Every structure is written in C-alpha cells, then in structure tokens.
Write a sequence for this structure.
C-alpha cells in the first residue's frame, strides 16, 4: 500500500515542475517583458506558463522550422508601460511592431542583441531619450519606423547601413545636423526626417542615395543643393516648412519620376525653372508661401497628370495660361495672393474633377467664365478681391453679372465673390447649391431684392451681403437659416421693413444691419442668446433696446448711433439707468404728452414772453458784470486737502516723488499710485507754461473728455486743478505701453499674431469712436506706441486723447506749435490715420516707427517720401528680404511662411493706405475698423 501511495504523490508533485521546465527561453523572455509592459487582459491571458508553446500566444509568431519567436506584433492593442531589456533575449526576432500604443521610456540598448531583426516599428508612442547606437549596428535591419514619438538628440552616427531601405524619424525632437548619406545608402528608398529641429542644410552627399524615392525633412536652412537632381529615383521631394532660401535649382528637372514637389513655406525667390515644368510625371506642386516671381509658362498646360497646383502667397504675375485644365484632371488650383492679371481662362474644369478653385487677391478682370457654372465637382470657389466684371456670353447687353449657371454647383460649400465689380441681381438659382456653408458677396454693386429662395440654404453658416445695393425687405423665410453660426452681415445696403425674420436665428453670434433703412421694434431680437456682437447703427429702429443688448450698447456705443427713437429699458433711479451714447432711458423718453386747451395755450404763451424778457434782462446784467471781472475769474485755484482721494494720492506717492515716476511724455509726467489691490491708478501731472495758470475753459474741456467712455480708451477717473499745474487720474494699465512691449522689455515677450491684430483693431475702434461718435469730434494728433497702453488681457487703451488739443489751446501761447512726437505726427496735423498706419507697420514686426523716417536735421520727411518708404517696406517684407537690424529681427521673420502671413500682408496693405500723401486718400477710421473686422471674420473662418 505504501508503494502505490508514494508513487501517486511523486507524480502529483512533479506535474508543475514538468510544465514549467518545458517553457522555452523565448517564453521566459516574453513573460519578463510583460512585467514592464501593461498588456491588455485578453492578450495577457494567453501569455501563460500553462501553455508551454509561446507560438500560440496572441501577437507572437514562430519560425516554420523551429519554435523560436520571429515576430512580436502588438500594434494598436493598448499596450503601455516601458520596453524592458529582456527584449534583447529574443535572438531570432525578425519583426518587432509595437506601434500605436502608449509605451514610454527609452529604448533599451539590449535591442541591439536582436541581430536578426529586419523590421522595427515603434511609431506613435511616447518613447523618449536618444536612440542607442547599438540599434543601427544590426546588420540586416532594413526598416526603422520611429515617427510620432519624443526621441531627441542627434541621429546616431552608426546610421550607415548598406541594407537600410526605409527610415522614418519624423515628428520627434531630433536635433543637430543631418549626417546621413554616403556611398552605403544606395538601397535607401524612403527617408523622412520632417518635423524635428535639425540644424544646417540639406547634405549634398544625399546624391549617393540613388534608389531613394521619398525624401522629407524640415527646419533646414540654406539653399536646395543641385545634387538632389542626381537622386534619379525620387518620386516625392517633400521639403515643406523649412528655412530654405535662394532659388529653385534647374537640376530638379532631372527628376523625371517626380510626382510630388512640396516646397511650400520657405524663403525661396526667383522664378521656377522651366525644367521643373517639363517633368512629365508631376501630380502635386505645392510651392506656396514663398517669394517666387515670374510668369507661368505654357509648358504647365502639358502636365497630363497634374492634380494639385498651389502657388498662393507669392509674387507671380502675368496671365493664367489658357488650356491649363484641358490636358489634365486637375482637382485643386490655388493661385491666390499673387499679381495675376487678364481674364480667368476657360476650361479649367474641362475634366469635371476640379474641387477647389481659389484665385482670390489678384488683378483678374473680365467676366466669370460660363463653364465654371457647369463644374458640378466644385465645393470651394473663391474669386474675391479681383476686378471681375464685363459681359457674359449669354447676356451680352449687361456686364459683371453673376451667371445663372452658378446654381449648377450642387456640391459647393464655399462661394466668395466679394470685393469685385459684379452687378445685377443675385440669381435665385443659387439656392440650388444645397450644401453651401459660406456665401460672401460683399463689396460689389449687386442690386435688386434678396432672393426668397436663399432661405433654402439651410446649411448656411456665414452670409455676408454688405456694401451692395440690395433693396426691399429681409425675406420673411430668413428664419429658416437656423445654421447661421458665424456671421450675418447685411450692412450698407438699402433694405427697408422689419427684422422679425431674424428672431429665430438662435445660433447667430454676429449680426450687422448697419446703414440701411430698417424700421422695427428691437425687442423681438432679444431672445438671440448666442449674440456676441451687434451693429444696428444708422437705421430707423424704435422702442426699447433688448435688455440682453445693453452690454453691447455699453461696450460699443457707436453700434447703436443713428437711431433716434431707441431707448434703454429701465426705470428711473435704477443703477444702470443712465444715458449711453445719447440713448436715454425709456422712462425719460416716453412720457405721455396730454393735449392743451386754448386757454392753457394763451397762458403759456404770455408767461413765456414774460419769462423771456426777464431772462434777457438778467443775462444783460450778468454779461456786464462778467466783463468787469473777466481777468479775475479766469483762474481756478484749488487748495490742498479739498479731496480725500487727492490726499491719498499725495500720501502714497510721497507728494509725487520721483521714485514713483513710470513715464514721461510731451504732455507731462506720469506717476503710479497704489491705493489698494483694486485701486491702482496712473496720475498725470500737467505743468502750466503760462503765468496766468489754468483757465476755466480747460476745466470744462477736461470735464468733457472725462465723460467719454469706450473699451479702447483709457478711462479718466478724476482730476484736480491748482494754480500752477493740474493732476489727471487714469486707470492703471498693467502691461505698460506698446512701446515698452516692442522696444524696451528685454528679452522681448512673444506676441502671437492674434494679439497683434487685436491691438491694431482695438486702436482703430478707439480712434473711430473719437472721430465719428464724439460730438464734437476729437482728433488725437499724437498716436504712437507710447500712447497705446495694454491691460492684463493685452487689450489696447488709447491715452492722452483730447489732451493734445487741451494743452495746445490752454497751455501754449503759440497756436502754431505742433504738439506730438517727431516720426509719428502727421505733417497736416489733422487726421490720426497716418499714425494708425505706422502703428500697424510696427505691429507686424518690431522696427521703430522713426527708423529711416527722420532726417539728420530732425525735421519731418514728406508724406510722399514716407508713403514710398512704406511701400518698399511692404514689398521687401513680402519677399522676406528685410534687414536684420537688431536682436529683435526674429519678430519680423516670425510670420514669414506661417498661416498668418496672408492676414499680416492685408493689415500691412491697409497700413500703407493709411499713410497716403493726401489726407483725402486715406480711409476713415470707420472704414479701417470695417476692413479689420471683415479680415478677422474671414480669416477666423479659414482657420
């Protein structure tokens, strides 16, 4: 009995040992790997010692003649953790694919022990650190895919493998120079080094990579080496978003198999060599955002495989070659922001494959070709900012009309024909473009009524019909456009009637109905809860403003001007029941007027005559008395201690001690006064230069200026007048002046273009309010960066408005004295537009506004000379040839080649118009604000 029992226990105890002992060494290695890697349970459940054959485990493959692991593929399975050194024990491993997971940490040097490894894909993880040298010492390694990680440091010097065929290191943080490329790269077919931070240029020794069919890299500088032309197998040359400069070498024409040529967003100049346009296999040519010039040759029409041609943001000129679409199946054509002239050629959509046609911002003339209306494949059409007009083939008696065939574009999503010379009615057939999302017909001469069928475009998000000649009422079915979620602009037309159809547009953020003849009660629009900006100025609206709109009235009073019958809905005595921009409370403007009897009329008339006589006698007596004491009453003394706030100011500044000075200007000294965390002020001390002291007229003018309220004007809190000087209390601006930000702070802060544009628009809005919405109008006369203050949100606030006039009339005995700053003051000293233009030039970079604009004598340069200088500046900037004047020159180059470059160019162009020699040629500040606002909306939509 003991013998069989002993044997039974022996067999039972030996079972686990037998199972474990049969697990292969590769199995042990995989189990060790799983200790560092977090493998999902469904996969890990198969990785168990109970199955001694790892060839059956999920993601594992073994050789056909042995049980060694040759493939480990866990791509996209959700693996995380780190890759441990045990991977180096898989000596027969040929393929390792752990891509698209969340593996972190560094690569173990032991990976180099996998001497049979030929394919390695660790892309789309969070791996970091340097690539171990041992990896590229594996002799049979032919494919290395490490893109979309966090690797850094230089490319290992061991990357000289003769067998390497595919190398993708893109989208990491590799740095240093590209050292790869030697006689041992003859088998390389794919090399992608893009989206790293390499230094230096493209190595000319890449010419030895004669089998390479794809080369991509970025952050490289210098010229394109002509030796690239010897890479005869290249099919894709992707050198986008670099710092490459110089000309495109003609040797690229030797790449007879090239299909993709991407050279966009660089600093290339000159003409595209004719040899490039003779490469017969070209399919995609993206060379936009450069400074290339010249004309497009006729050879471009022979590229039978051409599908995408994008040359926007360059300086090309001449005509668009006729026959461009006849021999190819072109899908995308973008030649915008150049200087092309002539007519739009016909047959661009001959193959019926054209999807995007963008010819905006050129000098094209003539009519819109009839065949464009037959291009049913189009989904984006932009012909805006040209001079399109002229007769259409089927309507020769008219000119500049919008073709009726436009309704055939059933796939169209974006249609922008703005800023042309188009006339005639808007075709109702446009409603057949059922997928339309953006429609911009602004700044034309389109007339007639707004088509009723327009309301069928239920997917429309952006609708701009501004600055046309539309008449009639807003269609009653406009309420069906419930997808309007970006902008509705019907301004500057001749529309009449009510606005009830708009009350259903609940997703609308921006509404502009200004400068029409609309008449209605506004309360019905109060439910539009998504509104963030409203302009109803210069109409005939009546009744109370919706309560939800009072915030718009206070932030932008000018948007409600020109409506004499509107009022603020509040009761007398309420905290918010105050006049805003001449809009009175309804309780004050809607008092009932009862009828008067004849007796009452007679009594009122008699007493009015008696009252007038008494007033006349009293006024005569007062005038006579005032003449005698005129000189004594002209000064306004103020004894210290008459104001509690003034006492506080004097106390915290030690009686205006020099250590509290934060600025000095043409009008006085500015001190910082810290009363409490929520009461920080700037105190400006105006020194009197006239023995007579400060006049009562100046006090009245300061009182007038103090009543002005606008979000882009520094608020005047209080003021005090003494016999020899005056003190004005302003809100303190935390970020100082624009001058400090651009020129004084070191190192200079980074200003994104959005912030710079915000500053330019804010200054323009402030000047517009001073020029057009104040009565009488206020001309600043000294707009310069030192007078533009920035708050915590970098919102600009204009300071010293009205003060130049006050000092000139109240302080100086000479009426001809020019108050301002040399280099910023306009020679005519009438308009502020020129100073605004110079400010915009500064915002596009950091060059001082007075650089190269003041002669050695310190006198003003003529307006004509300044206009010419700024014109040359604009041209140089577009070509990327501005000099590096100082350590801040990087700001000038910051936007070259960026997506903001187009917007920067338009602002610079507007600034140039603001500096025109003749004041009459400069746009009004109302026009400047309008154009900047339109730019903001247009580019926000594109982004």
């Amino acid at each position: 009995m003991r013998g069989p029992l002993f044997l039974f226990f022996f067999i039972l105890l030996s079972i686990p040992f037998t199972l474990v002992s049969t697990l292969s060494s590769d199995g042990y290695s995989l189990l060790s790997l799983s200790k560092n890697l977090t493998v999902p349970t469904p996969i890990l459940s198969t990785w168990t010692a109970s199955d001694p054959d790892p060839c059956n485990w999920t993601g594992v493959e073994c050789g056909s003649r042995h049980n060694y692991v040759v493939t480990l593929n866990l791509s996209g399975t959700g693996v995380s953790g780190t890759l441990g050194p045990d991977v180096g024990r898989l000596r027969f491993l040929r393929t390792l694919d752990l891509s698209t997971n969340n593996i972190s940490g560094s690569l173990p040097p032991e990976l180099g022990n996998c001497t049979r490894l030929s394919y390695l894909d660790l892309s789309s993880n969070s791996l970091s650190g340097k690539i171990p040298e041992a990896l590229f010492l594996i002799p049979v390694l032919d494919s290395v895919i490490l893109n979309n990680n966090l690797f850094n440091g230089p490319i290992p010097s061991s990357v000289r493998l003769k067998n390497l065929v595919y190398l993708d290191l893109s989208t990491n943080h590799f740095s240093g120079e590209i050292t790869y490329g030697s006689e041992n790269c003859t088998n390389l077919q794919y090399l992608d080094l893009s989206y790293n931070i390499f230094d230096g240029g493209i190595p000319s020794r890449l010419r030895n990579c004669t089998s390479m069919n794809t080369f991509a890299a970025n952050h490289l500088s210098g010229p394109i080496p002509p030796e690239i032309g010897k890479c005869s197998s290249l099919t894709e040359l992707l050198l986008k978003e670099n710092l490459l400069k110089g000309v495109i070498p003609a040797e690229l024409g030797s790449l007879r198999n090239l299909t993709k040529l991407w050279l966009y967003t660089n600093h290339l100049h000159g003409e595209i060599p004719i040899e490039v346009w003779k490469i017969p296999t070209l399919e995609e040519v993206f060379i936009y955002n450069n400074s290339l010039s010249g004309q497009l040759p006729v050879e471009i029409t022979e590229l039978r495989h051409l599908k995408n041609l994008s040359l926007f943001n360059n300086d090309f000129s001449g005509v668009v070659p006729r026959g461009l679409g006849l021999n190819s199946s072109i899908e995308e054509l973008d030649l915008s922001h150049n200087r092309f002239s002539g007519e739009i050629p016909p047959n661009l959509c001959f193959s019926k494959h054209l999807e995007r046609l963008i010819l905006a911002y050129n000098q094209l003339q003539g009519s819109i070709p009839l065949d464009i209306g037959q291009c049913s494949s189009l989904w984006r059409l932009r012909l805006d900012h040209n001079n399109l007009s002229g007769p259409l083939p089927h309507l020769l008696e008219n000119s500049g009309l919008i073709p009726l065939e436009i309704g055939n574009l059933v796939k169209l999503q974006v249609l922008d024909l703005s800023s042309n010379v188009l006339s005639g009615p808007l075709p109702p057939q446009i409603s057949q473009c059922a997928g339309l999302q953006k429609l911009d017909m602004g700044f034309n001469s389109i007339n007639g009524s707004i088509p009723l069928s327009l309301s069928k475009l239920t997917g429309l998000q952006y609708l701009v019909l501004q600055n046309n000649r539309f008449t009639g009422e807003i269609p009653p079915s406009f309420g069906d456009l419930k997808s309007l979620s970006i902008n509705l602009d019907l301004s500057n037309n001749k529309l009449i009637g009510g606005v009830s159809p708009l009350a259903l547009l609940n997703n609308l953020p921006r509404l502009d109905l200004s400068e029409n003849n609309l008449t209605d009660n506004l309360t019905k629009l109060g439910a539009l809860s998504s509104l963030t900006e409203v302009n109803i100025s210069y109409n005939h609206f009546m009744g109370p403003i919706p309560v939800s709109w009072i915030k718009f009235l206070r932030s932008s009073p000018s948007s409600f001007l020109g409506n004499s019958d509107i009022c603020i809905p509040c009761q007398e005595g309420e905290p918010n029941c105050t006049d805003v921009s001449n809009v009175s409370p309804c309780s004050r403007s809607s008092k009932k007027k009862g009828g008067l009897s004849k007796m009452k009329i007679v009594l009122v008339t008699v007493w009015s005559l008696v009252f007038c006589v008494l007033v006349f006698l009293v006024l005569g007596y007062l005038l006579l008395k005032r003449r005698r004491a005129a000189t004594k009453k002209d000064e306004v003394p103020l004894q210290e201690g008459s104001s509690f706030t003034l006492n506080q100011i004097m106390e915290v500044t030690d009686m205006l001690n020099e250590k509290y000075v934060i600025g000095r200007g043409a009008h006085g000294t500015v001190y910082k006064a810290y009363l409490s965390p929520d009461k920080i002020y700037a105190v400006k001390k105006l020194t009197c230069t006239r023995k007579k002291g400060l006049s009562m007229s100046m006090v009245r003018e300061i009182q007038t200026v103090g009543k002005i309220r606008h979000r882009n004007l520094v608020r005047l809190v209080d003021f005090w007048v003494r016999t020899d000087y005056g003190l004005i209390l302003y809100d303190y601006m935390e970020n100082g002046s624009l001058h400090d930000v651009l020129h004084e702070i070191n190192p200079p802060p980074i200003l994104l273009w959005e912030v710079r544009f915000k500053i330019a628009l804010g200054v323009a809005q402030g000047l517009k309010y001073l020029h057009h919405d104040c009565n009488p109008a206020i001309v600043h006369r000294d707009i310069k960066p030192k007078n533009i203050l920035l708050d915590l949100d970098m919102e600009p606030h204009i300071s010293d408005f009205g003060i130049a006039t006050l000092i000139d009339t109240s302080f100086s005995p000479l009426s001809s004295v020019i108050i301002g700053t040399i280099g910023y003051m306009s020679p005519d000293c009438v308009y502020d537009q020129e100073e605004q233009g110079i400010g915009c030039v500064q915002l596009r970079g950091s060059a001082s506004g007075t650089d190269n604009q003041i002669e050695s004598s310190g006198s003003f340069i003529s307006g004509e000379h300044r206009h010419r200088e700024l014109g040359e500046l604009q041209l140089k900037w577009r070509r990327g040839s501005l000099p590096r004047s100082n350590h801040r020159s990087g700001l000038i180059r910051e936007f070259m080649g960026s997506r903001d470059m187009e917007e920067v160019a338009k602002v610079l162009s507007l600034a140039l118009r603001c500096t025109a020699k003749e004041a009459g040629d400069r746009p009004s500040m109302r026009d400047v604000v309008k154009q900047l606002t339109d730019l903001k909306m247009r580019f926000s939509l594109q982004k």
